[in-house]
Automatic annotation (TrEMBL):
It catalyses: prephenate + H(+) = 3-phenylpyruvate + CO2 + H2O. Gene3D superfamilies: 3.30.70.260, Periplasmic binding protein-like II. Residues 213-290 form the ACT domain. The record marks T187 as: Essential for prephenate dehydratase activity. Pathway: Amino-acid biosynthesis; L-phenylalanine biosynthesis; phenylpyruvate from prephenate: step 1/1. GO terms for cellular component: cytoplasm. The keyword Transmembrane does not apply. Pfam families: PDT. Coiled coil: none annotated. GO terms for biological process: L-phenylalanine biosynthetic process. Keywords: Amino-acid biosynthesis, Aromatic amino acid biosynthesis, Lyase, Phenylalanine biosynthesis. This is prephenate dehydratase.
Amino acid sequence: MTDPVTDPAISADFPATGRIAFQGEPGAYSHEACRGARPDMQALPCATFEDTVEACRSGAADLAMLPVENSTYGRVADIHHLLPESGLHIVDETFVRVHISLLGLPGVRLDEITQAMSHTVLLGQCRDFLRRHDIRTVTGADTAGSAAHVARAGQRHLGALASPLAGEIYGLDRLADEIEDRQNNTTRFLIMSRRPDHSRRPDREGRDRMLTSFVFRVRNIPAALYKAMGGFATNGVNMTKLESYMVNGVFTATQFYADIEGHPEDPPVARALEELRYFTSTLTILGVYPADPLRTRQTPAEG
């Protein structure tokens, strides 16, 4: 848990607000991530990812919570394009297990629900449950917004698929819990700040493994990516993620996003990054931060 007043990553430039911004309505899974990772801070809902970033950048919030990937559906669209241009820095990661509840008006029974509203992605994660109970789907703008709509509409036959937190916020009953088809569905979030924090290191027991995230573009020479990656192999640096995506819709302009284990000041990491710089036209460190403990607790069946 961090203190917004003393956290070196978020102090300076603006007075501390004690707020962390997220995209979505109150009760969204991003809101749940805020409550879990920063329970001492006030969660600030924003309409879009761009608004979330701007809330942090402008000083309206100290931190921003951004989802980057889901174990079932892969990376979150647009986030990897947004991160390098945001001017913000990654200071933490957190994982949220996507537990889905069927929510209904107070006093409604499960057998009264004939329709369930939610975001398309969530509707697709509960097919077995919905089919067993003969419940038709209704597409909503988002999960928490669907719960809010059900609360306002007052229709006993209409339920919402959302987080238990959304049920708590909008005064709905939880008619069924953990109804998702895949029990390992997990979303990874990054916590962003206006200032980087490279001060942390693993403790003596080896806990709090450090991660470094960066984006780069390789030089236009043969086998540039292969050569650039060689430095991590020869220096024994574990790369946990490498993704590519087009820049500005041009097929010949490719940017890479990578996560590695270690700190840029660790000698093996420093050597690998130095070799990477030789083969790249741009290299930007997005953040240096502790690995979420869930990384070490995961089993292959959960990954």
